[in-house]
Structure formats: structure tokens, C-alpha cells
Amino acid sequence: MNEGVEWALHSCLNLSWAEPGEAVTAARLAAFYRLPAAYLNKQLQALARAGILTSISGPRGGFRLARPPEKITLLDVVVAIEGPQDAFRCEGILREGPGGRPEVDYREVCVVSQEMRKAELAWRRELASRTLADVRATVERRHPGTPESTRDRFAQLRT
Amino acid sequence: MNEGVEWALHSCLNLSWAEPGEAVTAARLAAFYRLPAAYLNKQLQALARAGILTSISGPRGGFRLARPPEKITLLDVVVAIEGPQDAFRCEGILREGPGGRPEVDYREVCVVSQEMRKAELAWRRELASRTLADVRATVERRHPGTPESTRDRFAQLRT
DNA sequence: GTCATACTACTCGGATAAGAACTGTCCGAGTGGGGTAGG
DNA sequence: CCTACCCCACTCGGACAGTTCTTATCCGAGTAGTATGAC
What are the boundaries of the region Disordered (chains A, B) (predicted)? Predict the structure, then answer.
């Protein structure tokens, strides 16, 4: 799985702690964890294309969450970065086997493919059941000072 | 996920239908689905290293299952090909953040990492609950002629 | 006829390239704010 | 003093290289079977 997934999840989390209505630039989000700014920008663009973030150009621009954290699941973020295709690639191997028919969709017929999809569905279901708000609440319960310190860090990085 | 996973799963399944005690060469397993023989051989080597297959050199050599299909889970095969590491790479991003400590294992502390691991565990659990024997039984129920036709194919490919 | 031996063909195993995907970097288009000059 | 305009700095966005991982290929080490010759 792409490394950008980790960056995207943490960046979304940090954005959820930003001042309401405030846009945070990719440079500041990157400085938070000493990440390469231009590359993080690329990932944030993907999140914007997926409708998870809104991007604002120009001075005072940056990114902010496009909808409340309760409406953003971890699966949304993962799919935005990784793409919607399944991790297990069923290349229709049976099509090349004996008695294979080109017109058959072997993702539906192949038992191996079905089992792999079932497992992947369990993974997706788990990710879809957790929202950004859930994660944020857990973090705040364990480390109550996080929201304030995050806002402070952003303010400090504003130069 | 590597394409070799699909090849490995189907090859193991085909091996489970081979004559008991018969070793099938990588070339024949590859010809079954018109796969590149040398590369499939590489995947089969990984399965052998993982203890799923036994490899025999020389004439009349090849691969066969190292243990009965009831004792081989889909997870075993996936791990043998993909490696044991998690798909979600937690690079300890928090270590570089404010107040990060180098000695902390952030896979245990980071809430994001925990949620991702939980999802991945669900995936692994699903794969571990299905054995090669289960898949084989399902295939035989839907297509009763498969065992015989598979053996015929192997015999035909023996030249 | 039997046995030992050397040979040959066959298979796995790891070392070696080609290709694709991920990671990282750069510069241009667009935008909003602030300074400035005029009324 | 107020307003309109212009310039500039700032940010995203997509186009452009470097590196790692996946995919594919090849040749050598080892082995089992077989043919051959001697006894």
C-alpha cells in the first residue's frame, strides 16, 4: 500500500483540528511531520479530486475538509489515494485454461476470486465503519491536549 | 498485491487434484494457464521455502503439496508470496511530529495505525478461515468433472 | 544374466535484465491582498 | 478621507526525473534414469 495513505490520514486528522474555516497549506501540513511538501501536495490533490478536501488557491489559500469528519470514513481516504480497484488482481486466469470462454466474467465464477473478494470486503467494511471523527475522539480521549497543541503548531508554522 | 498470488493459489489447487505422490513440474503447471514458466517457478520456490510445497529435482521431479489441503489456508499462500509484513506501512510518522520520541513504537500508540491494523486483521482472519480443501470442495460441487479433467490435462502435458 | 559405471536429459535454484509503479521535484496558471495614486 | 486600480507574493495544479519494486528471463548445480560394457 502506498505510503501516501499514512500521510493523508494524519493530514486529514490535523485538518479536523484546524480553526473552523481556516485553510492550511500543503507546506504547513508537510512541515508538521517533516514530509516533502511537493509530494504531500500531490496526495492532497487526490483527496481534493475525491471530494474529501476543498482546495483554495492564492494567498490565504490551502486545504480544508470538504465535509464534517463524521462523514469521512477511513475507507474514503484510502480509496482516494490507492484507487478503487481491488488489491487482489483477478486476471481471469481460468480464461486461458482448458474450456475457458473469453466472454465469461471470471471474477464472478472463479471460487478463488470469490474468496479473495470476500476477505477484501471484510477489510473494506472495517475501514468504512470508522470515521475521522471516531479516530479524532479516541486521540482526544488519550491525549486531551492534542487539539490545542495542533492549532498552536499550525499558528507557529505560519511564520 | 502481486499477480503471483493468483497463480500460486490456482497452482496449489491444481496440485491438490494431481495423482497422490505425483510431482508436477513448473512447466506443466504454467502450461495449464499459458503462464511464463520460469516466473511461475519463482513463485513456486517461495511456496516451497514457506513449507507449503515440497520440491524434487531431476527427472520425474517437480512440486507437490507438502501437507494435506485441509492444513493449507489461503492466508498461508498469500503470506508466502507477499511476505509477512503488513500492507499498511506505518512509518512512525508521529516520531517526526511535535513531541515525538524516537524510542516509542508508534505502531502501538498511533490510533490511525491501530485502526488500519484492525482492518487488516479482519482481512487476515477471513483468509485464514478458508483452507485449500474448502475451495476445492466448492469447485467440485459446482463443476464435478474438474478433478478428472485436471488430471487428464496434466497427463496430456506430460508429452 | 547381473552388476557397476558413466552418460544424458531433465528439474529446480538463484543470479541477471527489462518494465512499471511509486516517490520526489520543479515551474507555470490563477488568485487574493496590499500598496498607491487619483478624485 | 475614500475608492479604484495595479502589482506582487503566494498557493495549487499538473508536467517532469530518480528510485524501488514487480515482472520476466536465462544459465548452472544437482539428480534420477538409462544405456553400456565388463564379469
Answer: 138-159
